[in-house]
Amino acid sequence: MSDYRPGAYRESSAETLRDRRHVRESVGSATRNFDARRLQAYAGIEAERWRDWIRDVKTHVLTNLDRYLEQAEERLTANGVRVHWAHTAGEALAVLSEVVARRAVRSAVKGKSMLTEELHVNRHLDGLGVHVRETDLGEYIIQLLGEPPSHIVGPAIHKSLEDCRRLFHEVLGTPLDGSPDALAAAARDALRHEFLAAELGISGGNFLAADTGTVALIENEGNIRLSTSLPPVHVAFVGIEKVVPRLEDVAGFLQITARAATGQPIGNYVSLIQGPRRDPEVDGPEEVHVVLVDNGRTDLLADDVAWEALRCVRCGACLNTCPVYRQTGGHAYGWTYGGPIGAIIAPAMLGLEEAMPLPYASSLCGACSDVCPARIPIPDLLVHWREKAVEAGLAPLAESAALEAYAAAAERPRLFGAAASVLRRTPWRLGGRALPVLGGWMQERAEPEPSPRSFRTLWKDGIE
Amino acid sequence: MRVALFATCLGEHFFADACADAVRLLRHLGVRVDFPSAQTCCGQPAYNAGHAREARRMAEHTLGVFEGFDYVVLPSGSCAGMIRCFYPEILGRGDGGPPGDGPTGRTGRTRQRAEALAERTYELAHFLVTVLGVESLGGGLARRRVAYHHGCHALRELGVEDEPLALLRGCGATVLPWEADRECCGFGGLFSAKLPEVSAGMADRKLDTLPEVDFATSADGGCLLQLSGRARRRGSGMRFRHLASVLWEGVGR
């Protein structure tokens, strides 16, 4: 997991805010736009009832996960799909190695998928000598730039139109003042050749219906449809938490996920994949693989509080509404999943120590749990991981000591009052050097002004 | 009706005048106000930072201090939220082990006491509107143009949204639309010191969208310290006033 650097969150976020102000601007306007559209889309349906329903279905699945996964495997296999169980990223990537070697794959196309980012699929394919092309427009942009996605749904939202114009001018020869439509058309032309040449198509999976063995995929550009149907081999990486009981459940999930993500009633394209091409069909791959990936998910499931995070449908609504995420976008968080959802799954998926300080990258404002379509109590889970961090001795020693002293004083009102009145008279500029808490405050703000006399004194003297 | 004022740490030391104004306001409305002198901290800073053991100690202390009153009123949405939303859970669970010891056990009984306290605990504006049924205080804010910041915990934990606005308008104030009025100011207790750069960016978003007003107000001292501290650092003269003082002015005596 050495690729991930959540530990640098403070430095990365500060650096982004200081040296790359345009990121805050781009991310801020894109997420506010997504958020406003989500709000509008929720208003058009009985959103609260649907959110209850998503929560309940997901909770049911997660408490019966073994049964549904086995049912899904059985149905997929009956449909002619080759099913693989991958406990680790390495086991998941080994499926690709086998396919690439056996079919002599030299080029691959990929639909947008956060799980494949988590697994570092592209780097693995590079290592195997396979040319892999991202085919989602946003993913294509950041692949050309050599960057990871900064948002679950809008991977390039940290980029401005100007950034894209310059990039496409260099790579595709479009004019420097090209319209967004012209840029998209140029990308489409370039990608068409890649689709036709690819011997392997790779995707994720939004949902997996256990009763029919169907992988469901939502998208807007048609590139996932092409990636999964044009090349002779399709490999879908599906997180084990993506299974739902019935195909008819998918209908509900598709609509709520699209509304939560982008405010659309449904994605422009929905692909329901149920196996390889059959006679006398003319389209579709000869070979379909579904890789059921754990990669830390059962560790999350085993946590008696944080398991609720596995209800996530990866809509990105919590990112869009999060005032902390809006400051920097996703890169500052140092791993695949930024924002509130990332902070509550990282401690299980990366390990608690590795995930620090992500559970602290929140003011606990609660905007995220207000919008989450699966009703994940995100602030409660953040506090849960903070408690785990304190138990594991990962909190700064000075903080633990200070809060212990604070608690001890709070049980002795006289001592508490005396200590407070000393602190009140300490100039913050001096205190800031001794106490990191005050130093952090003073770095960005003017000195706070304590009341000339404490309320206790005012009360004693009598309030007129 | 015996009402205890829980001034809170920030209230006692940074908003002492606002606490006094809260007392004046309550007395003006015929409420007998007490200030139990054993009160200290509700435990929120420890709880939010993950120091559950320390938070529980402070919660137990606070529970003992305020149990005997009909109501507990706080000039703070987040401290009121701490008591209302988290005390029963904090005080009712075991020390990280199995959940409590049943309704007749020690933690079970403490939980019931915490629930009883939670039900009687209110943020000031919430108390005025829902318990006292106040619709109008006076005309003391006539021709005042104000912006109201919804503290996150008042808004989302307590569900206090219209109450402060209705009171301000009832006093004659014009509450101007503020695009970011429901967004977090970036205070978040220790968050503001642990991640000061991001926290300041959040305050900047609030300040950059703030309309032209005579002053901005909020029910939470933490938010006010954050916003005014950042505004002054940026060289702005905008005034940020505690809601309790603004409402007392609204009485217009």
Helical fraction of chain B equals 40-55%
Q: How would you spell out the order of helices and strands of chain B?
A: EHHEHHEHHEHEHHEHHEHEH
Poorly predicted parts of chain A? none
Query: How many separate helices of chain A?
Result: 24
Coarse shape of chain A: globular
Low-confidence runs of at least 5 consecutive residues of chain B: none
Count of DSSP helices of chain B? Answer: 13
Q: Give the end-to-end Cα distance of chain B, rounded to a whole number of Å.
A: 24 Å
Strand content of chain A is 5-15%
Oligomer: heterodimer
Q: Structural class of the helices, strands and pairings of chain A?
A: alpha/beta
Instruction: Please state the CA-atom Rg of chain A, rounded to the nearest Å.
Output: 25 Å
Strand content of chain B: 5-15%
Q: State the helical fraction of chain A.
A: 40-55%
Round the mean pLDDT of chain A to the nearest integer and report it: 95
Condensed summary:
Chain A is α/β, with parallel strands linked by helices. Chain A contains 24 helices and ten strands.
Overview of the molecule:
The complex is a heterodimer of chains A (464) and B (253). Chain A is α/β, with parallel strands linked by helices and 464 residues long. Chain A contains 24 helices and 10 strands. In chain A, the strands form 2 sheets. In chain A, strands 1-10-7-4-2-3 form a 6-stranded parallel beta sheet, with helices on both faces. In chain A, strands 8-5-6-9 form a 4-stranded mixed beta sheet, sandwiched between helices. In chain A, helix 2 crosses helix 12 and helix 22 crosses helix 23. The longest helix of chain A has 23 residues. The mean pLDDT of chain A is 95. Chain B has 253 residues and is an alpha/beta fold. Chain B is 52% helix and 11% strand. Chain B has 13 helices and 8 strands. In chain B, strand 7, helix 12 and strand 8 form a beta-alpha-beta unit. The longest helix of chain B has 16 residues. The radius of gyration of chain B is 18 Å and the shape is globular. The two termini of chain B are 24 Å apart. The model of chain B has no long low-confidence stretch (mean pLDDT 95). Classes of the chains: A alpha/beta (464), B alpha/beta (253). The interface between A and B is large, with 73 and 66 residues.
